[in-house]
Write a structure and sequence with these properties.
171 residues, alpha/beta, Maf protein, five-stranded mixed beta sheet, 6 helices, globular
């Protein structure tokens, strides 16, 4: 017997926040694009789980590799060579790149060390979330605790909360 599954809280446990983001962005008539490294598409997928998300989600770039960050999103190769990919300025450039590449009003980016080993000299749980909007890009550092799936889920929630906060700050 096959039992249908019902996703009530989204892939990352952030379903309510994703709904709030989708509703707020649609109400304001603005769009978003994602640039995701450690979350590997979870932010976009969590938004897309919400009915009506096509009214605000332009697209996303999974930029796990530094070459994709540079070639697609326009992140400085010099910065990547010097600082590595787990860096606040890398997150900022990723978010700005997502806006540009996808033609969105807002861009959100995630980069960090999900584990089990440190990445680019940064300890497991170090995450940077950037939100780029009209006239302003903000970056927040998060120190998350848990295993790899928990860190990725928490980073997804942080990205969604960052989007909602940026939109609210713009009003």
């Amino acid at each position: 017997m096959t039992v249908p599954l019902k996703a009530t809280e989204g892939r990352s446990g952030a379903g309510a926040t994703a709904r709030a983001v989708v509703e707020a962005f649609i109400a304001r008539g603005v769009t978003v694009a994602t640039a995701e490294s450690l979350t590997a598409g979870l932010v976009a997928a969590t938004l897309a789980d919400v009915p009506g998300a096509s009214g605000m989600l332009r697209g996303g770039v999974v930029s796990y590799a530094s070459g994709v960050k540079a070639d697609v999103l326009g992140v400085s190769r010099e910065l990547l060579a010097k600082a590595g990919s787990v860096d606040p300025e890398v997150a900022r450039q990723m978010a700005d790149g997502a806006r540009r590449v996808c033609g969105a009003d807002y861009g959100v980016a995630t980069t960090g060390a999900a584990g089990p080993e440190p990445h680019d000299g940064k300890p497991v749980g170090t995450v940077f979330v950037a939100v780029s909007g009209p006239g302003r890009t903000t970056v927040r550092e998060h120190v998350l605790v848990g295993d790899r799936p928990a860190i990725r889920a928490a980073a997804t929630r942080a990205a969604l909360e960052g989007l909602l906060g940026a939109l609210q700050a713009a009003t």
